[in-house]
Every structure is written in structure tokens, then in C-alpha cells.
Amino acid sequence: MNGKRWKHSKTTVYNIGYHFIWCPKYRRKVLINEIEKRLKELLLQKANELGVEIVQMEIMPDHVHLFVKATPINTPHFIAHQLKGYTSRTLRKEFPALKSRLPSLWTRSYYCESVGHISEETVRKYIEEQKNR
Question: Is 26 labeled as catalytic in the residue annotation?
Fold first, then answer.
């Protein structure tokens, strides 16, 4: 995606962004050094495969922050599930030490918040004012 505010498909104009946060199991500080570097590569690779754009990414030793721009086709749950599943499988295969320390790489949960250019208050006001047009 090219950084413009709105994206287009045949039938849709959209601007959809999500802020995701998730942690390794037991909040272990395992996302460091080569694991951190490989995790970034894998996230970018899978996002590209899904057709979503990672606008901002920060890998902390015990959690991941992503700002993702998506299409209306991909739900937040699908995006998180795909990114977490793919990275867990690949990292545990490439770094066997992760298998011995953790029963699974990621916790089941994640945080997701929609992020947009227009505030909730502005949308509410716009919809309310449609009656008076």
C-alpha cells in the first residue's frame, strides 16, 4: 500500500488501521537478538502475503506492537491469528530453545484497537447531522 489516506478496490473506498499488541507465553523476554530480527522478517513476509501493510512495528523483549493497514476483507482476528500462528510455527522450528522454554510461543490473547483518521466523536456528529440535510 502506498501511504495515501484512502485505498480503493473495485467496489470500496477504505482506510482501515489496527493497533495490535501480543505477548509471548508467560510474558517471557525471548524476543531479543536473532529471534527479534527473524520475527520482524517473518511478520513483514506474512503481512505481504495477506495483503496488509505493517506501517509501524516495535518488538520489545516481552511483547509486540504493530500498526497495520488492512483491507475490508481481512478481519482483525484473522490478521492476528495468521501473524501469530505463522511466526510461532516458524520461530519454534528455527530456534529449538523456544520449544524447551515455552509450550507455545504466544499467549492466546491479543489487544486490538481500530485506528482511524477521523475520531469517534466526529463520526457520531456527522451521522446525527444527516437528518438535517
Answer: no
